[in-house]
Design brief:
single chain; 244 residues; alpha/beta; 8-stranded mixed β-sheet; 4-stranded mixed β-sheet; 12 strands; globular
Length: 244
């Protein structure tokens, strides 16, 4: 059981609003299509220049919400558009990909904790589908609606589905140290905190530091790697940075 995230910065031109990186998405879809049929896979993709741009325009984050339906639909609609691009590329390669939109599937409680039921995802997997989720808006008690990040979704899915492996496909070959060398393994956040900076592009969900914190909390072993290593990850290798 694999939970795979395609970073929004990988499949979009993140510094240009609502711009797809078609070549990168095609490469990712090729790698996914080559996965053995008997391996269960759930895909999550980030917002990139679709979700993050719109969320930033409306001042919405994972903690600061909105009760303006137009704002919520701008962000959700942009993510549905990106999701259709991802689904389309996968379907062209005979991957039985189907969408799961978190805005209609989960919520946050008053403490901000994410509740994401996964019965539909489990049933989809059992019936031979590849569920594809995405960063999205989500109802949030006391805040209206806030952003739910792809990384949060990956963590929730990995726990609920008891994933064996978790992969985050990024624009970098792994977590980089102060000299831009890939850190082979991380098992303690404090040991790498000084080298984990915020994303340079518009990102309302925490950047690399947030990813590492989220993955360290999982029981499943996780990897952060670049697009060029996606195929090897799906083949069972541990490219990039291993987080456990």
């Amino acid at each position: 059981m694999i939970v795979l995230k395609l970073g929004g910065s990988v499949i979009t031109a993140k510094d240009r609003p609502e711009t797809l990186d078609g070549d990168a998405l095609a490469r990712a879809a090729d790698a996914i299509a080559a996965l053995e049929d008997d391996e269960d896979l759930v895909v999550v993709h980030g917002g990139g220049s679709f979700g993050h741009h719109n969320a930033s325009e409306h001042g919405v984050t994972t903690t600061a919400g909105t009760r303006d339906a137009t704002a919520a639909l701008d962000i959700h609609g942009a993510m549905k558009t990106l999701n259709q691009f991802v689904l389309g590329r996968l379907l062209e390669r005979d991957v039985e990909a189907v969408p799961v939109h978190p805005f209609s599937a989960g919520h946050r409680d008053g403490e901000g904790e994410l509740d994401l039921p996964t019965g539909q995802v489990e049933t989809m997997l059992a019936e031979g589908f590849v569920p594809v989720l995405h960063g999205d808006m989500i109802a949030h008690a006391g805040e209206g609606a806030t952003v739910v990040s792809g990384d949060e979704l990956v963590a929730a899915l990995a726990r609920a589905l008891e994933a064996d492996r978790v992969g985050l496909c990024s624009t970098v070959p792994g977590v980089l140290d102060g000299e831009d060398a890939v850190i082979d393994r991380i098992d303690d956040f404090d040991a790498v905190a000084d080298v984990l900076g915020a994303s340079e592009a518009t990102d309302v969900t925490g950047g690399m530091a947030g990813k590492v914190r989220t993955l360290l909390d999982l029981e499943a072993e996780a990897s952060i790697f670049g697009l060029g290593s996606l195929a090897s990850f799906l083949d069972g290798e541990n490219p990039g940075t291993t987080i456990d």
